[in-house]
Amino acid sequence: MAVSTKKVSWYKKYASYKYYIPLANAIVPYCFWSSLIIAIVGIALGLGFAPADYQQGNSFRIIYIHVPAAMLSTSLYMAMAITSLCFLVWKVKLLPLVARSMATIGAVLTLISLVTGAVWGAPTWGTWWVWDIRLTSQLLLLFFYIGYIAFDHAIEDRQTADIFTSILAVIGIAIALLVKLSVYFFNSLHQKSTLFASGGPKIPMDMLLPLILMIVAYSLFTTGYILKKSVNLINRDRVMKHYLNQ
């Protein structure tokens, strides 16, 4: 019982603005600078040292932009949905601010994955777009991100907006799961996971290392953005409340 109480106290501590803001502000610079350094190394290795693919030639190099964006687009939505569900259950006021921060960067990453996927698909499949289950579900995921952001801006009352956007986020987790699982349960032009294939990654190490570095760089930048954005939202809400109370 003592251990359980300690965990609850730790959670409540860092879910409060008093502790969250200085912690986030301390972490953000490390996230941004390390993501920049790792991205430079990853891009240099991917463009300058990784060999051309035996089938796709140099067009495969868009993998270093496309794959990290695609991976994070679905992972972020699921994290946003879980964060929203926790808010609906426990009413922690920090959680919808974090979810709103995830929605912005998540929508951008989803758009990047769709655009780079189309650019990659043109020479590989012979077309920019097909109504494939993977591509279609990824497009639907973008619409859910946009819908979340639209609801957030359309509803003036903050408490009402947090509830409706949280419900929408939880509903949309089905689309995020469909994106992840579509290539395994449906006939799809899109290839299955290269990194998480059974028996290990199906890609040579000189191609794999830059990809891993780019995934890490994307993840660090995204983490830094979410922390910075959520702190900005907290400060904006404080200013608004102060202004309205005058």
UniProtKB/TrEMBL annotation:
Keywords: Cell inner membrane, Cell membrane, Cytochrome c-type biogenesis, Membrane, Transmembrane, Transmembrane helix, Transport. It is found in: Cell inner membrane; Membrane. The chain crosses the membrane at residues 20-50, 62-90, 102-122, 128-151, 163-187, 207-227. Residues 24-190 form the Cytochrome c assembly protein domain. Pfam families: Cytochrom_C_asm (PF01578). It is a multi-pass membrane protein. Its main location: membrane. Belongs to the CcmC/CycZ/HelC family. Required for the export of heme to the periplasm for the biogenesis of c-type cytochromes. This is Heme exporter protein C. The lineage of its organism: Bacteria, Pseudomonadati, Pseudomonadota, Gammaproteobacteria, Cardiobacteriales.
